[in-house]
C-alpha cells in the first residue's frame, strides 16, 4: 500500500489530499500540520475552511484512508510520497523584502524530512515557490541524507478557492516536473500513477522541474493580467460612456482570447496572484531582466489603482467626504464561496474609507468578525505603492462594526459598497434596504452584481464599475 503524507493542512493541502484519498481507496493519506487547532478542526464536524463539497468528501474518507494528525515525524518517516504544502508568504524583511517568497517554513520542513527519513522518499513541491526552489530543497535533503535517496518533484496546484473540489475532480491539467534521470523518471511515474486513478492520461503533463515551477507562476500572472487588462479598460469605459461588460463580451468572443477571467471588478485578491507576480518580478530582477520585471509589476499597479479609484469614487460622489457617515460593506472575502480574506480588495477599500473617517458596517456570510478585525488591524507590507495605509489607530477600530445580516449592515447607512460577488447580494430586497437608508442613498457595486437600472428606479444613486455613469456622478469632481 502506497502511503502519502502531506505537510500543511491548509487551503491547498486539505482539499487536495481529501480528493486523492477519495479517488484512491488503496492509498493511505495522512495530512499533518504544526497547528494543533487546525488538525482538531479537520477532525471535527466544523472543518477549518469553507469549500463547497469538501465536507462530503472528508466525511466519506476520514478514518478510512484519510487521517489528520500532528504526529508529523511518525507519518513523514512512514510515507513513500511526501507532499509539502506549507505556507510561502512574501518576505516582509531582509533581502528581497516585499517581493521574494519567504521559504522559512519550506526549509524547516525539508530539514525535518531529512532528519526523520529512514527510507527513500519522493518529496513533492505543492505550494507555489520561486523557480529553482526544488534545487535548494534537493541540496538540503541530499546534504543531510544519510545515504537515503530523495527525489524531488514539482506538482503545482491549480485549484481555485470556492471551486476546489470541482477543480480537483476534473482538472484542466495535472503538471508534474521532475529530474531527467532514471530515478527522476521513476518518481514522476509513481506520482502519475496516483493521479491516473481519476485523471485521463492526456491531462497529466510531465516536464522538467523548472518548467513546472515556472508554469505555475506564469499561469497566475497571465490570469491576473487579464483582470488588470479589463480593469484598465473599465476606467476608460467610465470616461467614455462605453460599457465594460459589453466590451469584455465582445473581446472574449474572439476564440483566440476566450471569455473567461474578463470580469471587471474592484480588483483581484487571494493568496496567489499578487504573491506569485511579486515573486516573478523578483526572479526577473535577480536574472538581470528589469524590463520584464516592470512589465509584470504593472499588473499589480493597475490592481492597486483600481482599488484606490473605487475609494475615490465613493468619497467624491458623497460630497467629497464620508467622515462620520455609515457605509455598509457587503462582502469581505476575496471572492464568493470562500471565507478566505487573504489579500482581499475589501481590506484596502475599508482602510481607504476609514482613512476618510467613515463608519463602516461589514457583512459577509462566511468571514468572522475576528478575522475582519485582524485583517484591518494588520500593518501590510508596503512594497512600492501607496495604497496600503498604516495600521488602524484604536479610534479607527471603533469605526468598524461587523454584522451577520445585510439588512442590519445597511440600516441607516448613507452608502453601500458591494465588494464580494456573493449570490445572495443579487436577491436582497433593495426596496426595503432603500427605505431604511439615509437619502440620497448610494450603491457602489465593485463586482457588477446588481442591475443599476432597477436600483435607479427604486431611487438609489448607483455606481457600477466600468458602466455608463449615473448623471449624479458625472457632475462630481473627476476621479484621480
Ligand atoms: C490582426 C488581428 O489578428 C486581426 O483580428 C485584426 O483585424 C488585424 O490585426 P494580423 O495583423 O493580420 O491580424 O495578424 P495576426 O495573426 O494577429 O498576427 C499579428 C502579428 O503577431 C504577426 O506578426 C504574428 O507573427 C504575431 N504573432 C501572432 C506572434 O508573434 N505570436 C502569436 O502567438 C500570434
Ligand atoms: C487562483 C488561480 O485561479 C488558481 O489556478 C491558482 O491555483 C491559485 O490562484 P484563487 O486565488 O483561488 O485561484 O481564485 P481566482 O478565481 O483565480 O480569483 C482570484 C481573484 O480574481 C478574486 O479576487 C476574483 O474575484 C478575481 N477575479 C477573477 C476578477 O476580479 N475577475 C475575474 O474575471 C476573475
Ligand atoms: P495554502 O493556501 O498554501 O494551503 P495555508 O496557510 O492555508 O496555505 O496552509 C499552510 C499550512 O502549513 C498551515 O496550516 C501551517 O500551519 C502549515 N505548516 C507550516 N509549516 C509547517 C511544517 N513545517 N510542518 C507542517 N505543517 C506546517
UniProtKB/TrEMBL annotation:
Binding of NAD(+), residues: 8-13, 33, 38, 86-90, 127-128, 161, 272-275, 342
Active site, UniProt feature: 272
Residues in UDP-glucose/GDP-mannose dehydrogenase C-terminal domain copies: 328-452
Residues making up the signal peptide according to the UniProt record: none
Source domain of life: Eukaryota
SMART domains: UDPG_MGDP_dh_C
Free-text function comment from the UniProt entry: Involved in the biosynthesis of UDP-glucuronic acid (UDP-GlcA), providing nucleotide sugars for cell-wall polymers.
Family stated for the protein in its record: Belongs to the UDP-glucose/GDP-mannose dehydrogenase family.
Protein name, entry field: UDP-glucose 6-dehydrogenase
Organism: Elaeis guineensis var. tenera
Gene: LOC105058063
